[in-house]
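REVIEWER CHECKLIST
Item 1: Sequence provided? yes
Item 2: Single chain? yes
Item 3: Sequence as submitted:
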Amino acid sequence: MDVGRWLAKQCQHTIWAGLMDGQRERLEEPGITPLPPEQETPARAPKALWGL
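Item 4: Structure as written out by the authors:
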């Protein structure tokens, strides 16, 4: 598992909002906070669409 990719996903505003309070608290302990919606990177296109 790519921990960096997992962490980046957890910081997305929509994912962060869906976490339980305890999960957010555990991420905040080491200083991890959600990104503002305007700083989120757009989702990647599925590999099947790359060749189009």
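Item 5: Key structural point noted by reviewer: The two ends are 28 Å apart (CA to CA).
Item 6: Recommendation: ____
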